[in-house]
Fold each of these.
Amino acid sequence: MDPLPTVLLKPGEADRIVAGHPWIYRGEIFRVTTQPADGELVQVKDHRQRFLGVGFFNARSKINVRLLSSERIEINEKYFEGQIRAALAVRQRQLPSATSFRVVNAESDFLSGLIVDKYEDILVVQISSLGMDKRKALIVAALQKIFSPRAILERGDVASRKFEGLEGVGGILVGELNGPVSVELNGLKFETDLVGGHKTGLYLDQQTNYQAVAQFAKGAQVLDCFSFLGGFGLHAARAGAAHVHLLDQSAEAVAASQRNAAANGLADKCSFGAVNVFDWLKAQTAVQPHEKVIPRFDLIVLDPPSFTRNRASVPDALRGYKEIHLRALKLLKAGGTLATFCCSHHVDATTFQDVILSAAYDTRRILRRVATYSQSPDHPVIPMIPETEYLKGFAFEVVR
Ligand code: SAH
C-alpha cells in the first residue's frame, strides 16, 4: 500500500474520533506532514502518533477530514461494494418487506458525503463531499454490481456541496428514465418525480411512521397538514379513516397526492387544499370573542418542513411550531390524536415537546403522550454522531 499523507491532531482532539465520530475540523489539526491534495486519502494520528484511521482530506471545507475507517484500507470498487452491501443488510434486517428505502445514509453508514436511495429499480445518488465526488465512478460501478438498477440518477442540488467546493450537478448516470416512477411504501403506491421532486423524490424517513400514525385513523376525521404526496393522509385513509383532508401549499404536490389517492382507490375519502397551512389554520380557528372554535378532527398530522437552517433561526422556528400546534389543538376533539413531527436537527426532542406543551397550556388542553417517533431505520441513528439524528415526533391524545 502507498504511504499516505499524515494528519496529526492536537492533544485532546482524538477522543471524539476514537468514539466513532468521522469529522475532523480544521482547528483540531496540529500538523500535516506532506500536504495532501484535496480529495486525497490521508491517515490520521493523535498527537502521540497513534494511528486513528483513514479518510478523505479537503482543505476547502471546514471539515478537513472525513474519516472512513479506523483501519488502513484501500479505497476501490471492492471497498464501496462491501460498505454498501453492509448498509443494505441493515435495511434488509430492519425493513424486510420494503422495496424503496435509503440504502446509504452518509455518516449513519460511515460513508460521510454519500447518500443512496432506492426507489424500486431506480437508484438516486447524492454526493456532498469532494472525496466521494472524485470516486463517483467506483461508487456507480459498485451500485451496478449490487443492484443491476434500471437507472442511476444523480441529485447534486444540495447546499452542502458548496462547502466542499463542488458545483451543482444532476442527471442520469446510468440507464434511462422518462417520467415519474411509481414507488411503493407499505403497499401503497406513490407517483414520484425523481428528477425534480423534494429531497431525492420522497420522504423515505417517514416510511415506518406512516404505518404507526395510521393506527389512530380508524373511523376518524383526519387532517394531514404539509401533506406533500399524501404519505400520512393516504395511509390513514387505507387504515379506515372516515375522511381525510390533505393540505399543502404546493399545487404540484397536491395534484400528485390527488393522483396517488386515485391510484390507490382512496379518492372518495379524500379532499385536498393547495393552501398555506398557517393561513388555513388561522382562518379555521378565527372566532368572535364570545364564540368557541368547534373541534372537528379526530386525528391531525403536522409534518412541516424544517423551519430552521441554522441555530440563529431557532427562535423564529419555535414560534412557527407553537402557532400551528395552538391552532391544531383547538381543532382536535377531546380523545383525538395529534401526531406531530420536527425534522430540524437544531430543535431537540425536549425543546420540541416544550413548545407543544406551551401550546397545550394556552389552549387549556391536557395531553397524554401515546407514542414517540424517530426517523425510519434506513436513516440509522448513531448516537456517537449526533448529526445523524434529526427527525422526532410524538403522538398525543387529547385527554380534555
Ligand atoms: N408529510 C410529507 C412531507 C412534508 S414535507 C410526507 O410525509 O411526505 C413539507 C411539505 O410542506 C412540502 O410538501 C411543502 O410543499 C409543504 N409546505 C411548506 N410550507 C408550507 C406552508 N406554509 N403551508 C403548506 N404547506 C407547506
Amino acid sequence: MENRAFIALGSNIGNRYDTIMSALKLLTENPKIKLVNYSSIYETDPIGYEEQDLFLNMVIEIQTVLSGIELLDFCLKTEFELGRKREIRWGPRSIDLDILTFNQENIETEKLTVPHPRMTERAFVMVPLVEINPDHHIPGVDKPLNVLLNELPDKEGVRIWKRKSGEGVFEPIES
Ligand code: GSY
C-alpha cells in the first residue's frame, strides 16, 4: 500500500465512542486501507460554533492504495453511512472524517485541500496527531508537528478521554 495518510475523526452527537469505532471498522474493512497507528481518544471543547456538545476526537494513520480523491470519497461515504448530514457549517455532527495529510503531497481541488488548511491551528487535531507522530513535517512547513503544537494556545480544551495504552486500554477495533 503505497500511500500514507493521516485522518482526524470527530463526533459530538449520540453515542460518540460507538460512532467513532464504527467509522474505524468501516475504514479498516476496506481491503484498500490498512490501519497503521492510532491515537488515544480526547474529549474536546467545541471550536467554531461553541454552543454545542463536547466532541470526542482522535487521529489515525493509514496506508492505502486509494488516491487522495478516492480516499475522500470513501470518507464521505462512511460519514453518510453513519448518519452524517451536512447542515450547519461549524455545527454538531455524528461523525467527521478529515484527511489531514496525504504522503507529502499538496492537493488543491474543488473537493479536497491537503494538507488540511486549518489543521495546525486546531489543538483537537494537533494533540492526537503529535501523540502518534511528533516529528512529522507537513509539506511546506519547516517546523515539525511537536514544535507547532507547543506554540498553540488553548490546549486545555483537549483532555484525554480514553488512553491508547495503560489503564483502560482501548483497542481500535472491538471484535
Ligand atoms: O472539523 C471537525 C469538526 N469540528 C470540531 C471537532 O471535531 N472538535 C472540536 N473540538 N471542535 C470542532 N469544531 C468543528 S467544526
Amino acid sequence: MEHADLERIVFDTSTLADRVAQMGRQIATDYHGRTPLLIGVLKGSVVFMTDLVRQIDLRLEIDFMAVSSYGDSTRSSGEVRIHKDLDRSIEDRHVILIEDIVDTGLTLHFLTKILRARKPASLALCSLLDKPEARVQTVDLRYVGFTCPNDFVVGYGLDYRGEYRNLPYIGMLSRHVYGG
Ligand code: PRP
C-alpha cells in the first residue's frame, strides 16, 4: 500500500529488486577472482547495500563511513565532516563505494578524494539513484541503478528528517509534507 505522504511511487519494490539483482550480477562478473570491499555511506545506503551484497556471488567484505556536510555556506566547497571512519586500511583493496543517491555530487567527490589518497588497488562508485539535474561536481559513477527525476524522493533508505527509510519502495514525497 502506498504511504499516505507520497505523491506517487517512483520505483516499486519489484523494480528495485530486479535492478539490484542485475547490479549484483554485473559486479560479480566485473570482480571475478577478487575480494572487493564494499563501503556504504551511512545512513541512506544501508537498505540498498544489504540487498545488493546478497546478490553478489563472490567473496567480499563490507565497511561503512558516516559523513555529513558542514552546512550550506561551505557545502559548495565539497567539504564534509567524517563522523565514522573505516575500520581497516583500504590499501591495495578493490573498493566499491556505495551510495543511495548522488545529488550535487559533492559528497562522493570529497569521499573519492580522501579514499584515493589511501591507495586502494581500485575505486569504483556505485549509486542506486542518480539525479543528474542537481549535479554541481562531476563524479564518475561506474554502477547506477536508475536515473532519478529531480523530485523529493524517499524510501528504501532515503529519508526526510530521518523518516521513511523503511518504505520498501521509492516514492515522491507530497509537497504538503515538506512545504515545498
Ligand atoms: C545523502 C546521500 C548522499 C548525499 C548525496 O545523504 O545519502 O550521501 O546526500 O548528496 P550530494 O550528491 O548532494 O552530496 P544525507 O546527507 O541525506 O545523509 P543520510 O545518508 O544519512 O540520509
Amino acid sequence: MGKSDNKIVELSNYRPTDFVLERVDLTFELDPTNTKVDARLIFHRREGTEAKSPLVLDGDELALSGLLLDQNEVPASQFEATPQSLTIRDLPESAPFEITVTTFINPEANTQLMGLYRTNGVYCTQCEAEGFRRITYFPDRPDVLAPYTITIIADKAANPLLLSNGNFLGGGNYDEGRHFAAWFDPHPKPSYLFALVAGDLGVIEDTFETMSGNEVALKIYVEHGKEPRAAYAMDALKRSMKWDEERFGREYDLNIFQIVAVSDFNMGAMENKGLNVFNDKYVLADPETATDQDYANIEAIIAHEYFHNWTGNRITCRDWFQLCLKEGLTVYRDHEFSADMRSRAVKRIAEVRHLKSEQFPEDAGPLAHPVRPTKYREINNFYTTTVYEKGSEVTRMIATLLGQEGFKKGMDLYFERHDGDAATVEDFVKCFEDANSRDLKQFSLWYHQAGTPLVTASGAYDPAASTFTLSLEQMIPATPGQPKKEPMHIPVSYALILDNGSVVTPNAVAGGEVTGDVLHLTKRKQTFVFSGISSRPVLSLNRSFSAPINLHFDQSTEDLVHIARHDGDLFSRWQALNDLILPILMQAARDARDGNQIACEPAVISAIVETAANEALEPAFRAQVLALPSEADIARELGSNNDPDAIHAGRTAILSAIADAGRDVFQQLSDDMQIEGGFTPDASSAGRRALRNSALGYLTYAEQSPARAAEAFASADNMTDLLQALTVLEHRFPETDEADAALGAFVTRFDGNALVLDKWFAVQATIPGSGTLDRVKALMADRHFAPNNPNRVRALVGSFAFSNPTGFNRADGEGYRFLAEQILAIDPKNPQLAARILTSMRSWRLLEPMRADHARSALMTIERSATLSTDVRDIVERILKG
Ligand code: B3K
Ligand code: ZN
C-alpha cells in the first residue's frame, strides 16, 4: 500500500524549503528484488530561514540503510527515519554539506508502477508526481531543482542498456559480469522528471539538426522485433521538434533525446528530461495493428511529451497546484500542432467533443475543481480533464483575447523571464499582461472558478432601425466548495449570416468591448447592438468554440440549417447540426421511456444527409457530422433522471431513421470513399476511411443484416476498417454466426499482440445491453487477460464502466457491484489505476432513482473498506458527498 496519510495539502500553506539542493549524485546497483540506491545530495541552508530547523526528506515505503553527513556516519540521536520521512537535525548553518542516503528497494514487488519498477524484465521509473520518494529519501517537490549525475550498475547480459536523463558521460565493465553507465543532466530539474531505464530492448535511431545547427541523436527503444512499428513515432518526433522551433522558437537542449516504450504504464507517457517513457500503446503502430485514431494519438502524445521539454521541464511548476501551468499549456501546444498537421476544423470538432464528453461532466459533478485547485488530498487524482483540457481551453482563450501576435509576445516573455524557474499560474498570466499592457485580472477567474459557465443568448432584429440586438447573460453554477461565483470574462466569437449566405462581422457594435469577431462578455448581463444591418441576420455564436461554455440560444431549425449551410467556420457548421440533432435525441429518449412513437424532424435528417453527401466538404468533417452525439452526451444534456436503456433505444431509432432516409447517399459513399492502393496513415486517407465506415454503419441499420459488415471484415486490409467491421458485428448483431466468426478470427490472428487484444476486449466490453456483464466476467478469466497490466484492465473493466452505458448501468445494479469488487481488488495493487476507473461513477446522481440507489450502495461498499488507498478514499468520498 502506498501513502496512507489523509492530510489535505493547501496552496495557502506553500513555503519554500529551508535547504537549497545544489547537486544530486545517484548510484543504482540494480537487482530485481534488492536494488541499492546511494543518493549523495549537496545542500545549503537558505538565507533567512529559521536557524537550526531540521532537514526533512520525503519517503514512501522506504527503509533507511545508511546515512552519512560529509562522509561521516550520523549518530542515531541526530536523525529519525520512518517509511515516510527522514529528519536530520544539527546541520551546518552556513556551509554547504553533503548527505549520503542509502536505501534498498524491490522493483519486482512494485505493482503501483510508481518509483522504480519492472515491466517485462525491464527496469523503469515513473516519478511524477510523488514517485521519486519511493526510490530514496528526498525533497520530493517540484520547486527543488538541481543538476543530476547518475551511475547505473547492472548485470550486463540482462541489461545491455543503461539509460538515464541528460547526456551520456561514459561507461564500462564492472565486476562479476556487471557493467556501468554514467549520465549527466546539466539542466536543473525537479525529482519528478528523473528517469532510469535498464534492460534489453531494440532501438530505432535517427538524428535531428536543430535550428542553430546542433545534431541531436534520436532513439526510440521498444521490445526486440517491434522496431518497425516505432517508425511513425520517430517521424512524429522529428515533426514535433521542427514545429516547436518554427512556431514557438523552442530548440532542443541536449545532444540526445530518447523514448522508451513499456507495456506496463499507468498513463499515456511521461516527459522525463531527455528520456521520455511511453505506454507502448502510444508508440507502436503499423497498418495491420493500429487504427487511424491510434496514429493520431501517437502523433499527439509524442508531440505533447516533447513540448514539455520547454513547458514543464525548462519552466516547471512551483507546486502541484500549478499543474495546469505545464499541462494545460502543453495540451494547447499539442492541439495546435495536430491542427497544423491535420485539418484544423476537424481537429477542433474532435477536441470539443472530447471536452464536452469528459470535462463538462467532471465540471458539473462531485469531482468539479478549478483549473488551478487550492487543495488536494491526493495529487494523482488531479491529473484531470479539467486541468488538462479546460486548462488548454483557458490558454486558447488568452490567444483569442490577445490575438496571435499578442499571444506570441506573451509566450516569448514567459520563456525569457522564467527559463529555469519553478513558476506559478500568476507568473504565466503576468507575462501576457506585461507583454500586451493588458489587465487579465477578471480573465484569471477561469483558473479559479470551477463549473462550466452557462451563457443564455437571445437576439432581436429591428428592421426599422436596421439593428440587431443580442442579449447575453452568464451564470456559473455552484461547485463543491464554491457556492458563489463572480462573472467571468468570456470571449464569444460571432458572425452574422445574411439571407444570401454571406457572413459578416459588423464594425458598428455598441454595448461592450468587441475585438474583431469576438464579443467580450464581462458582466453578468450584457446587451450588444449591431447597427447597419439591412436584413434579418442569423447569428452564429461561440464560433470555433471560442469559450468552453454551455450556450443556450433558442434558434429555429431554419436558422440552424442556415448556419449549417453557410457559416464559413466549419466548426460552427458542425455545431449547428449538433444543436439540431441533440434535442431530437433527447426527445427520443423521453419518448422511448414513456413508450411513445419516436420521430425525427425531416428537415434535420435532410440537413445531415445533405452534409454527408456534400463533396465540397472534406470527408473527415462529414464523418464527424454523421457521428451523432453519444449516449453519454445525451445523458449529460438531459441532466437528471437518466434511463440509459431509453437513451439507447431513442438514439437507435434516430440512427435508423437517418439510415433509411440516406440509404442511397450511404451506398454512394461506401463506393466513392474506397481507397485504392496501400494504407497510408495521413489525415486525408483517414478521413475517407472514417466517412466510408460511417456510411457502412448506417447501411447496416437500413439493411438490418450483418452481411455487409461481415464482408467488410473479410476484405479489410487495415486495422481501422477491420475493427470498425468487428464493432458493428458485435454491437449490432451479437452472437450471430457472423459476429462469432469475426471475433474468433480476430483473436486467432492477433494472439500474442497485447495491444490489439485490448481492442478485442474493449469491443466486447462495450456491447450494449445487460448481458455484457457476464461476458466481461468471463473475459477476466481469459488467458489473454492480465489483471496487473493497466492497459488490459482499462480495456476490459475501464471500457465497460466508462463506455457501456446500458451494460454498466444495468437496472438491477449488478454493473455497479461488479465495479466495486474490481476497485477493491485493484486498489491494493495499483491505487492510481483503481481511483481512475472509479471516476466512471462520478455522474451517478444523474441516474433515475432506482439505479442511483444501487450506485450509492456500491459506492458505500467501497467506502466502508478499512484498507483503502488515499487515492480511492479521496475519490469515493468526494463522489458520495458532492
Ligand atoms: N506528466 C505526465 C502525467 C503524470 C501523471 C502522474 N499521475 C504525462 C503528461 O501529461 O504529459
Ligand atoms: Zn503533459
